[in-house]
Amino acid sequence: MTVQLGMPQPRAEGGSDPQAPQPAGRPAGLPAGLVDRYGRVATDMRLSLTDKCNLRCSYCMPAEGLEWLSKAAVMSAEEVVRIVRIGVDSLGVRELRLTGGEPLVRADLLDIISSLRHAHPDLPISMTTNAVGLEKKAQALKDAGLTRINVSLDSLHEETFTQLTRRPFLNKVLAGVDAAWAAGLGPVKLNAVLMRGINDAEAPSLLAWALGRGYELRFIEQMPLDADHGWTRRNMITAAEIRDLLSVDYVLSTDPRERDGAPAERFEVRARVPGTDTAEGPVLGTVGIIASVTEPFCADCRRTRITAEGKIMSCLFSHEETDLLGLLRSGATDEQLAERWQDAMWAKPKAHGMDHVGLDAPDFVQPDRSMSAIGG
Ligand code: SAM
Ligand code: SF4
User: Fold this and answer.
1) CATH no. of 2-7+21-374
2) What does pTM read for this prediction?
3) Cβ(103)–Cβ(49) under 8 Å?
4) Which ligand is nearest to the CA of 226?
């Protein structure tokens, strides 16, 4: 049997559980690559370099931190490079994002990036970071071969930043963002999660700040991936609310460029003539909204994830994890590793089912792992 790409193989219908266990078994004759049962092809690899972090964002980590993985449990630099090589050379990965935890806390980060760059001269390699310590490392990261950077920044107010991240490091982060820009790690993208009653009112001023500096701000809907399990549907700020918050000062219109599998829906931003529906002046830049909960984009998902301990997760909300590193350490060949990766992606759920949480799917089970332990 061959599967036609782009032709979903319907199984889970409407109200059925999209996370329900699926029959195993990837049919023979499929094209090479990370194909799933619904015709999606994963070409965008998110690889976590560590589960450790120096912030404690309330929507991600508990105040006391988590029990960190041992050094031996985490992929070594050589193992990271081998896994990426298999992804790129054998499985059609075209883009790599390094993440964590906080990737900057990894002592051998520069070696990893320069080895990856040496092996893949043309691969776009980006990194998501909280930017603490980036000021001193930005130029070296660029020189090692990093292409671009995404920085998490939820507030420009010291007190709010400290409340959200439980660390007083706003100035370090701002210096890090500017250093990344100066080092040529642009376009710099900023990620902001809005929390009701904490930083939601800051949405327009965050956007004004980003536009003024030429950074692309993206708002991410808060997902139920916090270690404290404090997320509620009622409390999260939805994409519709974000658009409303921004619309007081700005007129947003859909960016005419193709979305091309990107998680963020992009809008062009113009100033609003106060109290009217009219825009004035030129396009000031763009803003993105990643509406993973209320407007999910699972049907067009192109991501494959590797956790810091080398587990494949086909979806952020997978309850299934496939141990790639254990197989690698047992002496497996590249072909065997590629096959295990393909099998894991074949079983990717049709959708995460989160858009119904708190509405008609009270049985949604939050994954055990928090965002920091998966790699966002
Ligand atoms: N430490 C780095 C950072 O914060 O950029 C990289 C890892 S962090 C897990 C990656 C992204 O996930 C960040 O932009 C963060 O805001 C986002 N994130 C973490 N927990 C989240 C949640 N519960 N819902 C939505 N986004 C979340
Ligand atoms: Fe750390 Fe990033 Fe999680 Fe914040 S979002 S606690 S910076 S891993």
Assistant:
1) 3.20.20.70
2) 0.91
3) yes
4) 1
